[in-house]
UniProtKB/TrEMBL annotation:
Lineage of the species this protein comes from: Bacteria, Bacillati, Cyanobacteriota, Cyanophyceae, Oscillatoriophycideae
Highest taxon listed in the record's lineage: Bacteria
PROSITE patterns: ALANINE_RACEMASE
Modified residues (N6-(pyridoxal phosphate)lysine): 85
Alphabetic keyword roster: Isomerase, Pyridoxal phosphate
Gene3D superfamilies in the record: Alanine racemase, Lyase, Ornithine Decarboxylase, Chain A, domain 1
Name of the molecule in the record: Alanine racemase
Active site positions: 85, 313
Length: 422
């Protein structure tokens, strides 16, 4: 192989790679023949390339199962909002939204207007709540145009909404977020009555819900969560006393949904749970969830290295014996955290195989000595099920000192999302 690299490159190849001189005429084939060829090429690429190097598998049957499981926990009056922000936690927003709506979710939650527009453009007409902040008249016009429902958090913002919607001769649903202790977006809960009186006086704003977000619902210690719920309840009682009509209340994320039906109110906002992961180990017995996302890649080269061989950048790993080294076509630019270098195992043919050397941008290496007849092209499971092995985003999160939410969101668009149903 080395000899091949040293062979002089043929002159015809050099000619082809040289850009034409400015004065030269370049033949442009007729447009239709290019697009027909491109189309064919596209088809070939999509059927083979999707699983050629590395990919993410999205198990739609598991997703549907999780939605049904969560629905089963809810009281009859509580609806399910599937939180599909951040491209559905890396799972692919449109496919996830379509699937969860088919299986019982009635609302969708996203972080940004762009995420909402993507769903609308895909033909999804379920109510969509924008959980993040929106302020400017341009954003408000986009919200109105695409029927996206904003979160209101300040008097200044409410006034801009009222003015802009009035100029459009339109009214719109708005959701008021109270800060009961998360100290993130929201009107301080003590100012709920004052703020909602202001919103009620705006003829173009229709209050669709009042909600808050819990900071510690995944903790086994319920103290802070109970305090937040108490503040939420107090604010609601004060609003009712002030004669303000509240059509819908919501407070629970996945952890709270699994913890206590008293936290369900009229709607629960579930993200992690529908993707099949538990917000905390102590919540595992409450519900049977199936992980939806798997990450796979192929072996791209196999070779024997002698003892003393350094592997990857910096030679942080030196083989202490003869080893079968396997190269795999996935790296940190695909979302495999570089900090997992030397600390992760993958599964091949149902066997756990250690990763060695620094994880590089597009590739990583394994000590595959346990599988002496390993072939180029074999499938490597980085996350997910392979034989009896199951590698979870929770395992990576524990190794890295982070949370599974971050792991799921880290997989880049370079990895094709392939829908499967197991
Ligand atoms: C306001 C809000 N509600 C609900 C959720 C869903 O949380 P989880 O993924 O823990 O269910 C999130 C996610 O971060 C959120 O920001």
């Amino acid at each position: 192989m080395l000899d091949d690299l040293n062979t002089p490159v043929s002159s015809s190849i050099i000619d082809r790679d040289t850009p034409p001189k400015k004065t030269e005429r370049v033949e442009i084939p007729p447009r239709h023949s290019i697009s027909a060829r491109e189309h064919l090429l596209q088809q070939e690429i999509s059927s083979t390339e999707l699983r050629e190097r590395a990919w993410v598998e999205i198990d739609l049957a598991a997703l549907a199962h999780n939605v049904r499981q969560v629905k089963r926990l809810l009281s009859v009056n509580a609806q399910l909002m599937a939180v599909v922000k951040a491209d559905a936690y890396g799972h692919g927003a449109v496919t996830v939204a379509q699937t969860v709506l088919q299986h019982g979710a009635t609302w969708l939650g996203v972080a940004t207007i762009g995420e909402g527009i993507e769903l609308r453009k895909a033909g999804i007409d379920a109510p969509i709540l924008i959980l993040g902040a929106t302020h400017s008249p341009e954003q408000i016009r986009a919200l109105a145009h695409f029927s996206l429902q904003p979160t209101l958090v300040s008097p200044q913002q409410a006034r801009v909404f009222e003015q802009t919607l009035s100029s459009l001769h339109q009214s719109g649903a708005v959701h008021v977020k109270l800060d009961t202790g998360m100290s993130r977006l929201g009107v301080p809960w003590q100012q709920a009555v004052e703020f909602l009186q202001l919103v009620s006086r705006c003829p173009h704003l229709r209050i669709a819900s009042i909600y808050s977000h819990l900071a510690t619902a995944d903790s086994p210690d319920p103290t802070v969560m109970q305090l937040q719920q108490q503040r939420f309840e107090n604010a609601i009682a004060n609003l009712r006393a002030a004669g303000i009509n509240i059509p819908r209340l919501h407070l629970a994320n996945s952890a709270a949904t699994l913890t206590d039906p008293q936290l369900h109110y009229d709607l629960v906002r579930v993200g992690l749970g529908i993707y099949g992961l538990y917000p905390a180990p102590h919540l595992q017995p409450t519900i049977d969830l199936k992980p939806v996302l798997q990450v796979k890649a192929r072996v791209t080269q196999v070779k024997i290295i002698p003892p003393g061989t350094g592997v990857s950048y910096g030679h942080q790993f030196i083989a202490d014996r003869e080893m079968l080294l396997a190269v795999v076509g996935i790296g940190y630019a695909d979302g495999v955290p570089r900090n997992l270098s030397h600390k992760m195992k993958v599964s091949i043919r149902g066997q756990m195989i250690p990763q060695i050397g620094a994880i590089t941008m597009d590739q990583l290496m394994l000590d595959a000595s346990a599988i002496p007849d390993l072939q180029v092209g074999e499938v490597v499971t980085l996350l997910g099920q392979d034989g009896n092995n199951f590698i979870s985003a929770d395992d990576w999160a524990a190794t890295l000192g982070t949370i599974s939410w971050e792991i799921l969101c880290s997989f880049k668009h370079r990895l094709p999302r392939v829908a499967v149903s197991r």
